[in-house]
Specification:
heterodimer; A: mainly alpha; 3 helices; B: mainly alpha; Four Helix Bundle (Hemerythrin (Met), subunit A); 9 helices; 0% strand; disordered C terminus
């Protein structure tokens, strides 16, 4: 068994991925690209969950693998979010003929 | 050895994430996203969660990336890809913001405050060993069984301890399915004014097209 990866390295990787995903959400104007950046953010959260599960002692009464179950639920939610998000983007594209989130301003005051 | 492997995988993952965010071509961004998902799956293997790595590959690379590719294919702007380019004036403050967020997170990681009764995790450099030995705590044996036989343990846990979360996830998936179908189904309800006018423009004005039919019906 390899015991020589510090826990902090996984957290650094997750933090870097989260920051990159956040930059993508802020900078990109294409709606599909924004969805991709959201997927990066969710994956960073998953890395954190699994790393804390493997490196730490479990909380009392939490079972053998709480982090993995939580990661599976996050994956489920991400899949549902992408399905609905693609449907919404296609609907907006059909109406405005462009996949630009700056142009979807019907609800702006 | 494992740390070198981790550094290589993490470098590939971060580079792929950067490529996803900064790439101008959306198809290339999607392929970079596949590389990022695969790097995360490799990290799951390094964390001894092989079943989760398999789920990651199946669900993210097999389903989510393909769905995003279909989205790219269906929304490609034929007049030009100016929505996918990032203006230089936005790029500098955006990257600065990203660096600031990363710096804040690193400071938080390096100055963790442990809850009372727990050891702080910022100095954790090795995972608890799962090798069988005498007089080990009960959770070591539990976790060893979970790591060695993860699909079965995940199934048992989902059916016993996390059954409410499991049901809620099923409800969410059903709602997402119905919602996606409802969103996509509106296509048939919407009036197709642009296409009808385009066809009318091609075939000429409607009265001329209607006259021969009417005359033939009269005669």
């Amino acid at each position: 068994m390899n015991n020589d990866i510090p826990l902090n390295w996984f957290l650094y990787f997750a933090a870097a991925s989260f920051a990159i995903g956040l930059v993508g959400v802020m900078l990109r104007r294409n709606a599909i690209a924004v969805l991709m950046a959201i997927e990066i953010i969710l994956n960073a959260a998953n890395v954190n969950l699994v790393a804390f599960w493997r490196y730490g002692p479990p909380a009392p009464g939490s079972g053998p693998l709480p982090g993995v179950i939580l990661a599976i639920l996050v994956i489920t939610v991400a899949a549902a979010e992408v399905a609905v998000g693609i449907g919404l983007i296609l609907l907006c594209y059909r109406r405005w003929r462009v996949a630009d989130v700056d142009r979807y301003d019907t609800m702006s005051g | 050895m494992a740390s070198i492997l981790f550094l290589v995988i993490a470098a590939i993952g971060v580079a792929a994430a950067l490529g996803t965010v900064l790439s101008r071509n959306l198809v290339r961004a999607g392929l970079y996203l596949v590389a990022f998902f695969f790097a995360v799956a490799c990290l799951f293997v390094l964390l001894e969660a092989e079943f989760l790595a398999a789920i990651q590959v199946l669900v993210y690379i097999g389903a989510v990336a393909i769905l995003l590719m279909f989205g790219i294919m269906l929304t490609r702007d034929t007049l030009g890809d100016d929505t996918t380019a990032i203006p230089i004036a936005w790029m500098v403050p955006g990257l600065f913001m990203g660096l600031c967020v990363f710096a804040v997170l690193v400071v938080g990681i390096n100055n963790s405050i442990a809850p009372s009764g727990w050891s702080p995790w910022e100095g954790t450099t090795s995972r608890p060993s799962l090798a069988p030995r005498e007089s080990e705590p009960a959770w070591i044996a539990e976790r060893r069984e979970a790591v060695n036989d993860m699909p079965r343990v995940i199934g048992v846990e989902l059916m016993t301890r996390y059954v409410v979360a499991f049901e809620v996830a099923g409800l969410l998936l059903t709602a997402a399915l119905v919602g996606a179908i409802a969103l996509a189904h509106r296509e048939d309800v919407e009036p197709r004014a642009p296409r009808a006018t385009a066809r009318a423009a091609e075939t000429g004005p409607p009265p001329e097209a209607g006259e021969p039919v009417a005359s033939s019906a009269l005669s």
